[in-house]
Amino acid sequence: MFVAAVAWEAGKPLVIEEVEVAPPQKMEVRVKILFTSLCHTDVYFWEAKGQTPLFPRIFGHEAGGIVESVGEGVTDLQPGDHVLPVFTGECKECRHCKSEESNMCDLLRINTDRGVMIGDGKSRFSKDGQPIHSSRLARSLMLAALPRSIQTLVSCGISTGLGATLNVAKPTKAAEGARLAGASRIIGVDLNPSRFEEAKKFGVTEFVNPKDHDKPVQQVLAEMTDGGVDRSVECTGNVNAMISAFECVHDGWGVAVLVGVPNKDDAFKTHPVNVLNERTLKGTFFGNYKPRSDIPSSSRRAGAGEIHHPQSSFRGDQQGF
Ligand SMILES: [Zn+2]
Ligand SMILES: [Zn+2]
Q: Which domains does the chain have, with CATH numbers?
């Protein structure tokens, strides 16, 4: 028997349950999860607003753990290995994996509506015979020796944000990634002023709260920066924030990178002249990192202290979980 926090219904409190976890099948491993966290994307799917509801479900795609057993054909991992599950994969053989530019693996790329294993289309989790879906893909794992405070974040949040800036918004030197890349001014935009102090530790130098202004935030940013920012990175998934993030970049050279997961029915609307004026709109998935090839080195970077990781001040009991 294993213990899991199960979401039985959209938006309802998670319930700690004893669940069964079937043994790993061919090319799968079973991981004892030691740490997990809920990122914004999990909360989004938990609320199921504008997304396909998939319940019951175990959230926590950001995690760290130890391989407990391996299935047939697994040669690169063994019981006892420290691993991070990642929500996407890298088969190393498809067109995407062979392309230097893409990390959108044909075989193992994310499918948020699936919630089951690729091999046989079944879940490995169940409660009294009822299958439970999962956000994790136990096929995509990599070794990492990291401080505990940062482990789970490397499996999603840190890699996504860092890669969006270092790999996609390049070459100008958005917050932790922008600091590492040497940006001189980093402007954080958030509706929640309590985040501002924390963001300073990640290198954000100035703050804009759209609520403090009567005009659109893209106009505020353009005025602060003599026509627009060089690079912008949008992480919330709110479509209006995405549009602002695009419209706030400077004409001629500005690049906007979208990271956040939008609602199912959202549409991105902007005047074509914003593109014709030589602004670039890009999107990224998992920071453009190939999970098996790239994450071990970026996690070493995190482990070496190059990436700022304050002990989390986030406590589930204070967030109504
Ligand atoms: Zn592939
Ligand atoms: Zn995540």
A: 2-143 (3.90.180.10), 162-285 (3.40.50.720)
Report the separation in Å between the CA atom of 155 and the middle of ligand 2, taken as the mean of its atom positions: 8
Alpha carbon of 268 to ligand 1 centroid (Å) = 29
- Please report which ligand is nearest the Cα atom of 154: 2
Please check the confidence at residue 279 and state whether its pLDDT lies above 90.
Answer: yes
* pTM, full prediction: 0.78
The string of pLDDT tens digits covering residues 58-80 is 988 888 888 999 999 999 889 99
Q: How far is the CA of 29 from the centre of ligand 1 (A)?
A: 19
User: Angle 217-224/239-247 helices, nearest 10 degrees?
Assistant: 30
Compute the distance from residue 90 Cα to the ligand 1 centre, in Å: 5
